[in-house]
Write a structure and sequence with these properties.
Length: 222
Amino acid sequence: MKLLILLGPPGAGKGTQAQLLVSHHGLIQLSTGDMLRAAVKEGTELGQQAKAIMDAGQLMPDAVVTGLISDQLDKHAHAPGFIFDGYPRTQAQAEALDRLLAERGLKLAHVIELTVDEEALVARIAGRYTCARCNEGYHDQFKQPKVPGVCDVCQSTEFKRRPDDNAETVRARLKVYRADTAPILPYYEAKGIVTRIDGMADIAQVSEAVERVVAKDGLPSA
């Protein structure tokens, strides 16, 4: 079983690269953001708490996030591997993840950090939106529908934006990343498993660089 972490601030492209790895190698993507948003949509007590915290650009309590990850590791115990997308975010979470993996006889193979230009990233995130029907992604500047107002994929005319995709919240999340998450890199550098990739490059270029890293493990194609 292969395990890797994708690190980088919100909007660096972690989710996109994780999906490509899932498609290419059959790995399981563990995105705490997706799991928490699902809880918000379901309107659970955790979801209501998560919504307030995410809207403020803050982080979930460690115990909640670690519990979500633990459940998923057990649920998919026979998967070929896992991609940790946006987790761990703090050294406490990194240490908790090490313990979770050690209990299962597992260890991390790679930590890949997608580096970014922060001001360019704010523009990237603040301009993005999705089709309300099929969730195809678009951007005010970089990727608009071929026919204005009509989704390329499903022809829906309804679109949506995430409430936390605004410049003020993005800057708050970047500040949190710099303060809490970036400092965990030395923890993994000491293990010799960190690789940095330019997250501002084209998606295909980033994917090629990620594939060169995971190719060292001889991961099979899905």
